[in-house]
Description:
By secondary structure, the protein is an alpha+beta fold. It has two domains: about 20-75 and about 135-335, Alpha-Beta Plaits (2-Layer Sandwich), CATH 3.30.70; about 80-125, no CATH class. Helix content is about 45%, strand content about 15%. It contains 15 helices and nine strands. It has helices at about 35-50, 80-90, 95-110, 115-125, 130-150, 170-180, 180-185, 200-205, 210-220, 225-235, 250-260, 265-270, 275-280, 285-300, 330-335; strands spanning about 20-25, 55-60, 65-70, 160-165, 270-275, 280-285, 305-310, 320-325, 335. The strands form two sheets. It has a seven-stranded mixed beta sheet, with helices on both faces. A two-stranded antiparallel ribbon has the order 5-9. Helix 1 runs antiparallel to helix 2 (about 80-90) and helix 1 (about 35-50) packs antiparallel against helix 5 (about 130-150). The protein is globular. It starts with 17 loop residues before the first strand and ends in a 5-residue tail after the last strand. The relative contact order is 0.13.
Amino acid sequence: MGxxxxxxxxxxxxxxxxxxxxxxxxxxxxRLFDDTDKEVLRRQLWQVAEFCGVRIITYxxxxxxxxxxxxxxxxxxxxxxxxxxxxxxxxxxxTPQQAASxxxxxxxxxxxxxxxxxxxxxLLALMGDVSAFMQLLKQRFSIWFNHTHARFGTLWAERFRSxxxxxxxxxxxxxxxxxxxxxxxxxxxxxxxxxRFCGYAESVAGNRAARRGLASAYGGRNWEExxxxxxxxxxxxxxAGRAKGASISWEAFLKxxxxxxxxxxxxxxxxxxRYFTYGAILGSRAFVLSQLNAYNRRTGGRKGAAIQAxxxxxxxxxxxxxxxxxxxxxxxxxxxxxxxxx
Length: 342
């Protein structure tokens, strides 16, 4: 018998909205995705998000993994008309079989038949939940990828990782910046606006949904204000320019840390920060504690969980993390790893 999975830390969608950083990697970490594959995953990401009723705040797609930061709203009733609209968004170019199935569903819903109730229930179960969103996205892309590349079997290495992110404080914008800087850590671009497969680049290119996503994290009365706030976090400057070589080597980072020095947060975010991917909850200490207590009441407890403050290498604000890796506090060098993409 296989090991029992630890229940994922989530907020019940019936109670309130919640934000999550989700990440999934290819089997064996193989670099399988070329630009065509990334483009298909990018399109499917938006389509599945619209169907599931979640907001994409930002994302990054690389050769062997992807990150997405999403907001799952508080669950509200979905009308039959909205259900059909979301299905049509999911199947923008339906096959003849899909088109026939959609026509049958339209007829069943109009007649309010027993068959309609069953299909309605199954479809609504895929909406308003981060696990259902990720499962549907990974399944749809796997089917396309295996068919296109004449392969079979598992594409994804493991259960996707998720971090519950405080949506009311600075945690959300810090996480959004960290995700958009993936291409910089991978040395694929010096500025994420030049890397097509991330939410920031889509926003700069004019995608309204992408701009609304970043605005939900950074604030701003319009795109110009949102962009300026975003650039400040990404580069320590406004939207007008970018410092040359705005990066830091791992050796320089360790030297500053060893000497008890401090760096600007935009420099630290160019290093891998394991708390952002391997943690379970990210936010203020009060937020982390409240969500941990709610989880413990629901499940009976999370073994090895501990609330940890971030190492004082920069001004993290009130950020704290729930760490569950091996149940131990990570050292500075383990918590902040090399400047490679994650």
